[in-house]
Structures
1.
Amino acid sequence: MAKQITVLIADDNFHMRESLRILLSPLENMTIAGEATNGEEAILLAAELQPDIILMDINMSPVNGFEATRKILKQFPAIKIIGLSLHSEPAYCRNLMRLGARGYVTKSSPYEEIIIAIREVAAGGTHVDKGVPGCT
């Protein structure tokens, strides 16, 4: 049996969190550890829940996904972060990857892409959506 992957969803959009929860919850070996509505909550829940993966929206306030990623990985380098954004511009992806994120997908990515990203990153790899050219 494959190792259980725990996922924290960090996104300020309720419908996006709900969609991701509906998508991921029924999958074998994947568990939603929690949900954060902003970067501050993501930092607190990362410390409390120690998830394997955080799906991190980058446009949140008062603490955005870049700052939350930086703070989380400074304290908990074993947590793997996958950026989740409306932006397909490579600069957003490159900035997040420089901070230590292991993946980047857009909110317009097919859901299968998000599942593949989670599994690849959980296995120790990296994953960048093919719709974000020039990120790596």
2.
Amino acid sequence: MPERDLAAEFRAGNVRGLARAITLVERRDPAVRRLLAELGQPRPPVVGFTGAPGTGKSTLVDALIRHWRALGRKVAVIAVDPNSPYSGGAILGDRIRMQGHALDPGVYIRSMGARGHLGGLSLATREAVRLLGAFGFDEVVLETVGVGQSELEVAAVADTTVVVMAPGLGDGVQMIKAGILEIADVLVVNKADLAGAQRAAQELRTMLNLAPRTEWKPPIVMTVALSGEGMDELEQALARHRHYLEGSGEGRRRMQARLREEAADLVGQWAREAALRLLEADGELGRLADESPYVAAEQILSRLGTGGERAEARA
């Protein structure tokens, strides 16, 4: 589809145009850059949800969507799933669990595979957020599968990171190991109707009291996602954090950090693509890579305008 037609579909509010644009993002099509330049790049607030599997993240997000829709807000959800190492396909369980909103024009749900990116967060996710903002969504939710580094990397994309836990899953120890408390802006104890929920909340309070003092102290919200209990409190906690980001300057600092990280990721991606083209086009480089990938890498960096030693010194 021509870019002009795609931009027109965007402006007309055609969700098929949005879906096609995000597909182009996933394919790393250069046309996306021109489309974003034409549409402008308003960035909606992004709330990231992470936590161990089994804590009820998808059910919680589903309840928050209902709460926001009752307030008249348009909501988009990006569920980032791991890709199959064989087919490249993503696990679409989160999208299936949220199908109750399928007929609501004010809700858009998209599953995106990790595309091999370390930690599970795709480079395409950040551009998809910009497209959703250009389309007019008021809220964007980013949910990760909660495995490995994705729990930490969600904070690099989200404005507010919500860490979800549930009683009886041993999450306290895992949080200490992975440093999850450091990236949490809001802590949620879901399934609060189960035995052990209050004890889990008390353990979290103890951990927060032992952590270094910071200007923002993550609130602990008790929820029962299946019944919608605690959604008002969660919404209020998110609103307080947004107010803090705006008033303290932390929001601007995070935005600058996000842009620097994205620029570095793009440089890395483009350099990798250029290196692969050199290896395919130059038989001598290919043979050199078979014998010594280090020497081949230095030769590639030299041709790309930098030196291997300087690159190592910066690493």
3.
Amino acid sequence: MVEMDPLSQFHLQSGLGTLGRIIDFTNSNQMMVIAALIVTTVMGIGLRRAAIVPGRMQGLAELSYEFVHNMVIDTIGEEGKRFFPFVFTLFSFILVGNLLGLFPYFFAFTSHIAITGALAFFVFLLSLIVGFWHHGFRFFKFFAPSGVPAWLLPLLIPIEIVSFLSRPVSLSVRLFANITAGHVMWEVFAGFMLMLVSSLGALGVVAALIPLGLNIALTALEFLVAFLQAYVFAILTCLYLHDSIHLH
């Protein structure tokens, strides 16, 4: 009987053997370094020699640049140009991290709440700094929108504060939960397929075609989710920065 443990794929392991245990360098850290190197390499090669007719690498780099640039400007406004490098780095890092986790023997570091939580907290902290930088203590007006009747403020202000403080939680859990759920479903269907083959023999091979087909469809869906979750994280970052600059 084939034993299934869908959560074993999320276990942290030493990424550098004995040295990894000494300096606490795990497979998650290893994948983050690889993701950063991939983004840097693609952008470096793609933009090294700008041609009128772009090649594949240049086209990929320019498409990524334009996509995130338009997202930042459309969401934040012209003031958002200064935040473009940050949003682009965040989007690219998460996207490549999500995609790496879809390949065998790779590790999805975005499936760990510690990683997504750290990214979300940094976004939250940045939005706070930007808000106070632009408005000083007037930033607290964010929790009391103009035009609201005075009698409604005692009810509205606590709701606004709780909603604001929950941003890093929702931002981190959304990414973590979607990546984790997809990988768990992936392994469950794969394990179910192996169980059918091992227990039913030739008949199991035929029956295993159903979970195999589901896994193929799920693989295509996971590639879409990898992009969508990177996009959602980036667009929400832009929205939070917009609120900090424009106060609603």
4.
Amino acid sequence: MNTIITIGRQFGSAGHEIGERLAKHYGIKFYDKDLLTRAAKESGFCEEMIKIHDERPTNSFLYNLVMDTYSFGYNSSSFVDMPISQKVFLAQFDTIKKIADEGPCVIVGRCADYALADYKNCINIFIHANEENKIKRVMEKFDLSEQKAKDMMIKKDKQRQSYYNYYSSKKWGRSDNYDISINSSKLGIEGTVNLLISYIENFEKQL
């Protein structure tokens, strides 16, 4: 196994669970929110700062100005002039590359496909699902009413879309930006994982 797997996902599509299962199948590391902890340690930002900006672009000048007083780490003049949200993005960007350089792994979200665009051994996956299935999954996971689950799903996807579109040169969720895009509602989690394993194994033969 020599492949780095990145997973973009709609909220409620089971992208996280699918990524975990792929990592377990191949016996490789899995990164989602724990990537933030590592990015914080390696960049000098406090972890809370990284979490505040996690997959959320913040364009408010005043907010960035205030939050800038809490930042430290990078010291080049061009970096100092950047808004805090961009500094946090760059910290994550650097961490993603370091993780990929260490060997095969699964990375969920955070523009990982964009960060690793030059890596030939990288497969970029996008997981989406039918609205009904996503709402049901969110209701069960967070113990929410149907309406609250739907509102949460819409909000989270808007955040992910605006973050991805803001920092990358591509469009979030557009199939031609990924190597493979799958509707997890059609096959379920296990079926989707099995299909992806087949795809990855064929890809490995080409390396």
